[in-house]
Every structure is written in C-alpha cells, then in structure tokens.
Design goal:
- By secondary structure, this protein is α/β, with parallel strands linked by helices.
- The protein has two domains: 139 residues, NAD(P)-binding Rossmann-like Domain (Rossmann fold, 3-Layer(aba) Sandwich), CATH 3.40.50.720; 287 residues, Dihydrodipicolinate Reductase, domain 2 (2-Layer Sandwich).
- 32% of the residues lie in helices and 19% in strands.
- Strands 14-13-12-11-7-10-9-8-15 form a nine-stranded mixed beta sheet.
- Helix 1 crosses helix 12, helix 9 crosses helix 10 and helix 9 packs across helix 13.
- The structure holds 6-O-phosphono-beta-D-glucopyranose.
- 6-O-phosphono-beta-D-glucopyranose (BG6) binds next to loops.
Length: 486
C-alpha cells in the first residue's frame, strides 16, 4: 500500500493546537514509519506561537517522547521533515511568506493545506491562500482539508461552500469526518458487501430496529466555550459522525468503491430520511445536559446546549420504510463505547415460548470502539432433557493478536496524498445531513424548557427511553448478552 512516493508538502494551519499535536502529527509519523511519505515530503506547521524551525522540532520531539515514542533514527528522520512558519492567518504578509516557503522548498507542484483551525477562519484562510496564488494548480495539485463542522446549519454550510468554490474546485476540497476513517466504520462496508449472508435479511422485512450509540466518559474539557456556542451533541456528533454511520448501514450496494459511487449511495440514504415531526419532537429527539455542565468554565449561564442527544429517524425508502434508527450520543456517560446494534424481528411463531423466559430476538452487534468486534446473538437449546432455550453468542474479534489497528487519521491523511476522496464528504452529503438536524435544532431553539439533566457516569436521562414509545425496546449499552455478566 505504498503511495509510490508522491512528493508534496503538508501544510498544517493550527499546528500547535490539540488536533494537530494529538492526531495529525502522530498520524504523519506513522505514515513516515510505514514508508508512505516520499523522501522529500516536508511538513510545515503554521501558527501564531512564535516557534522557529528548531524550537518547533524540539517541541514536537518532546511531545512524541513524552507520549512514549522511542528516541531513535525513525523519530530523527521524521523530525527532519518538520518546519514552522509563524504569523497571523489574518494578514496578507503571512501568505506571501508561505508562498516563498513553498517556492524555496521546491514543493511548488503538490501541496496539501490542512485547516486545523477554528471554523470561522476557513474562508479567511482560503481567501488568503487564493490571493497569494497558492491554490492555482498550474502543475501538480493543491488540496484543502477541512475539518468538521462544515457550517453550523444548512444556510451557513451553503455560505461556506459559496465562498470556497470561488477559489477551489470540488475535487480540491477534502471535507474530513474522522469517524469514517475508523477501521470499524470502514468495516461496515466490508461486513455488508463482502458477505452475502446478511444481504437477504438487511431490510424492513427482517430488521426490527437499529441503534447507533457513541458514548463518551469525558466532558467538554478545555473546549467548553466552543462546544457551548457552536456545538451541542446534535451538531458535534449526530450531524456528522452518527449520520455517516447510519448512511453506511442503510445504503444500497455501490457500483464500485470509487468515491462518487460510494457517495452517491450515501447521499440517497440521507435524502430519504423522513423529516422529524415537530409536533412529536419531545418523543423523537431528546436533549439533556450532564449535571455540572453549567458550572464548566466557558459555558454561558443558563445555557441550553445539550451534551446528550437521542434521536429517532426513519429512512423512507423501499428497503427501510418503517424501521426506526435510534441514534444517541453523550458526554460524561458511564462507559466509553461506540457500537451499532441491529435487532431482528422475532420468528413468526414462538414454538419455544412457554419453555423460555421472555422472547429473544436475534441481535447483530458491531463494536466500533473500544472493541472492534462483531457478535451475533442467537437462541440455542440448553443442554438437558428439557427443551429450553437461551441466547448464545457467535463472537468475532475483528483483529488478530499482534495486528496493529490503523488510526482514523492515518488512513485519511494518506488518502489525501493519494487523491482518494471516497472517505471524505461531498457537499451534497453535508447539506443533506444538515437538512436532517436543522428542524430539530430549530424546534429546540423555540422551546423554552431547559434540557433534561442526567448524572455524570450514568447512561443519560431516564426519559431517553421515551424514544421507544409503547414498544418493549430498550437501549443496548454493551456488546454483552443479558446475563453474560457486566
Ligand atoms: C469529535 C467531536 O468530532 O469527535 C468530539 O467534536 C468527540 O466532541 C469526538 O469527542 C469523538 O471522536 P473519537 O474518535 O474521540 O471517539
């Protein structure tokens, strides 16, 4: 899987920020170690902090060593790739200096610009780069990676797109959603489209409902002010990551794995999502805050920003009509766990019901993190003279001992180098996702009731069960069977 040594420069705006130091630089280091970076690839960090090249190199070395990276020749050779340009992204002089750097370092052909900065700078940086002639593809390519959120609602996404397309072609824009780069999320495609066994069952005739969970134990540490103003679980997680998972679970088989083929199918799913019925909002979309959120530094007094959301959606197409998809995410919950739980319908005749406590539908459980696993729960006879049943589990851990799981950013950063946009979001996908969440956000904005509260370390508000209405459904919190312990 070598990239064939494509010469380029990786320019990271916001290089001293948390994303760059915790994810991007370590991912580039891994790519370096695996031989995916051509010998002459340079990595330029840009930021306001006045580092020189040497002090930046020393800083990154220290960060790596502190995080357990060995001080060896591999690290030395990676550090040699690093350079730094300090300045204000708001000033033309910075972009002129960047232009000179690109020219002087002989990487005029291929350049990747990674916007790891606050979203309100996206347009300014693009315009600065364009004015300095840095986005023109005279020979080679110029690519721009944009972190989520792409806008904060449908209208602002349109405005952002409008400003970007004045200077960039769609092929130059890589809208990143790191969740899609996770091994287990990519495995959804393999599970569905490399195994015939699931396909006949993968529809409204056999599936009762689907749950998609992303639970975190951490709060909004260090980014409360940003989260409180522009985030909230709906914008921060559902609009992007969880709707992407839903799209991969619900999409039709693409004609190929080529970017447009994949994205065409995902867009169709997102466009088929039934608009949330605002007259039923409180039973279809639950919002809540963890106890203590209001006291976090940076959170506005009386804030209604939700740190937990549960949302019921329907995909109104031939395959899925009538099957609810329950999405939920929250911070400060009991466990860190992301998973998909697919509940199948019950057998039409319950032959064994009298001899079994309760009914046991089949479940397919797909662990995204921390475990990357696939489990199928089926009923089986309990050994003995009586015909009694219980649930057993067919369990497959996706990785084998000794296999290293690639980090999402490694995959995605390499894809940018290779020009593979299949795991990046197309503009119409982003628009369709905003169309799903915008009405809910509007409904909440018009609601004077504060969000529900839930204790830290719980599974969220009890009232989130309301989303299941009169049914006997309940949330699956773990990959374990009932009675399997824990
Ligand atoms: C980010 C959100 O996109 O994803 C964060 O902004 C969230 O709030 C994070 O914590 C979760 O991703 P991961 O990969 O850390 O589980």
């Amino acid at each position: 899987m070598s990239c064939g040594g494509v010469s380029h420069a990786y320019v990271i705006f916001g290089a001293t920020g948390n994303l760059a130091t915790a994810k991007l630089l370590p991912a580039l280091f891994q790519l370096h170690g695996m031989g995916h970076l051509a010998a002459d690839v340079e990595i330029l960090g840009c930021g306001r902090t006045p580092f020189t090249r040497d002090s930046w190199r020393a800083e990154v070395r220290k960060l790596f060593v502190d995080s357990g990276v060995a001080e060896d020749t591999l690290l030395d050779s990676f550090i040699q790739r690093l350079d730094y340009l300090s300045g204000s992204l708001k000033e033309a002089v910075f972009y002129e200096a960047l232009h000179s750097w690109v020219r002087d370092n002989g990487c005029e052909n291929n350049v990747i610009f990674y916007l790891s900065v606050s979203p309100d700078l996206y347009v300014e940086v693009t315009e600065g780069l364009a004015a300095a002639g840095l986005l023109q593809e005279e020979s080679g390519w110029r690519r721009m990676v944009i972190e989520k959120p792409f806008g904060h609602d449908l209208q602002s996404a349109r405005d952002l797109q409008h400003s970007l397309e004045a200077h960039l072609k769609e092929e130059q824009i890589y809208r990143i959603d790191h969740y899609v780069g996770k091994e287990a999320v990519q495995n959804l495609l393999v599970l569905r489209f490399a195994n015939l066994i699931l396909e006949p069952l993968w529809n409204r005739h056999y599936i009762d409902h689907v749950q998609i969970t992303h639970a975190e134990t951490v709060g909004v540490d260090g980014r409360a002010s940003y989260y409180d103003n522009s985030g909230g679980a709906m914008r921060d997680m559902i609009q992007s990551h969880l709707l992407q998972v839903l799209a991969l679970l619900a999409m039709e088989p693409p004609v190929s794995l080529e970017a447009e083929a994949l994205r065409d199918e995902k867009v169709k799913v997102l466009k088929s999502i039934r608009p949330v019925d605002l007259s039923q909002l409180s039973s279809q979309a639950i919002r809540a805050q963890y106890a203590g959120y209001q006291q976090e530094k940076g959170v506005a007094a009386g804030s209604h920003t939700e740190t937990y959301t549960a949302l019921k959606l329907y995909v109104d197409n031939w395959r899925w009509r009538g099957v609810p998809f329950y999405l939920r995410t929250g911070k400060c919950l009991k466990e860190r766990r992301s998973m998909v739980a697919v509940c199948f319908k019950e057998a039409p005749v319950q032959l064994f019901q009298e001899r079994t406590a309760g009914t046991h539908p089949n479940w397919l459980l797909i662990g995204i993190q921390p475990e990357d696993a696939v489990r199928l729960e089926i009923s089986a006879k309990i050994p003995g003279l009586e015909m009694r049943t219980r649930q057993i589990v067919m369990d497959a851990s996706v990785g084998s001992p000794g296999e290293r799981k690639a980090e999402a950013y490694e995959e995605l950063l390499l894809d940018v180098i290779q020009g593979d946009r299949s795991l990046f979001l197309r503009y119409d996908e982003v628009k369709a996702a905003w169309s799903v969440v915008d009405p809910v956000m509007q409904g909440w904005a018009n609601d004077e009731q504060p969000p529900l509260q839930y204790p830290q370390g719980s599974w969220g508000p009890k009232a989130a069960e309301k989303i299941f209405g009169e049914t006997a459904r309940e949330w699956r919190h773990t990959l374990r069977c009932n009675g399997e312990g824990g």
